[in-house]
């Protein structure tokens, strides 16, 4: 038998892609302790913790407004399933954590959607899960964004915005409700 035939079957690894954004990142360098564009293995039985305390947190955010432990991610397999998921828990007593439209208070936790935006303070993190099979570990892959992540999901204003150069006297009906007129009226 060749070494190729004897080699163990390669299994895929669940990877959590996290894209970070903060409006002051260029000046305050709060992400300087994170390793971007590099896959990092995390044992399945460990929690991935984010915060400013380097003795407790695996991922450090260098900002005094961030809690010692801001939030944690726990890797797990759903009961009677081969599907792997992440659970996110807010560990901050002072700051609420928003996961898409769900607000988490202190010690609240939910399943992390496959693709979602995590927000606290001015921080925005896009989380995307790439499925895998490994039961021993998962990987994280961190990215840095120069533009706000929420910018893509902004809801357009319901109020019409006039173009420059158009004055309101030309449109006297602006700001008034429409008037219904019967076809037969002259």
Automatic annotation (TrEMBL):
Subcellular location: Cytoplasm
A Pfam family reported for this protein in Swiss-Prot or TrEMBL: FHA
Coiled-coil residue windows: none
Keyword field: Cytoplasm, Immunity, Innate immunity
Any single GO CC term annotated in Swiss-Prot or TrEMBL for this entry: cytoplasm
Domain called FHA: residue spans: 49-121
Disordered: annotated segments: 165-186
GO biological process, one term: positive regulation of canonical NF-kappaB signal transduction
Signal peptide residues on this chain, from the entry's feature table: none
PANTHER family: TRAF-INTERACTING PROTEIN WITH FHA DOMAIN-CONTAINING PROTEIN A, TRAF-INTERACTING PROTEIN WITH FHA DOMAIN-CONTAINING PROTEIN A FAMILY MEMBER
Family: Belongs to the TIFA family.
Record protein name field: TRAF-interacting protein with FHA domain-containing protein A
């Amino acid at each position: 038998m060749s070494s190729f035939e004897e080699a163990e079957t390669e299994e895929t690894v669940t990877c959590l892609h996290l894209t970070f954004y903060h409006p002051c990142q260029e000046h305050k360098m709060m992400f300087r302790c994170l390793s971007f564009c590099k896959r990092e293995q995390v044992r399945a039985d460990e929690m991935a913790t984010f915060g400013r305390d380097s003795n407790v947190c695996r991922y450090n955010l260098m900002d005094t407004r961030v809690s010692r432990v801001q939030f944690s991610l726990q890797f797990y397999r759903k009961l009677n399933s081969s599907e792997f998921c992440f659970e996110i828990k807010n560990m901050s007593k002072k700051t609420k954590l928003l996961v898409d439209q769900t607000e988490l208070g202190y010690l609240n936790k939910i399943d992390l959607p496959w693709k979602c935006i995590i927000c606290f303070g001015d921080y925005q993190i896009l989380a995307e899960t790439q499925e895998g099979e490994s039961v021993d570990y998962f990987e994280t892959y961190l990215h840095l964004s120069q533009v706000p992540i929420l910018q893509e999901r902004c809801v357009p204003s319901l109020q019409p915005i006039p173009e420059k150069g158009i004055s309101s006297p030309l449109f006297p009906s602006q700001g008034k409700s429409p008037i219904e007129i019967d076809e037969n009226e002259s």
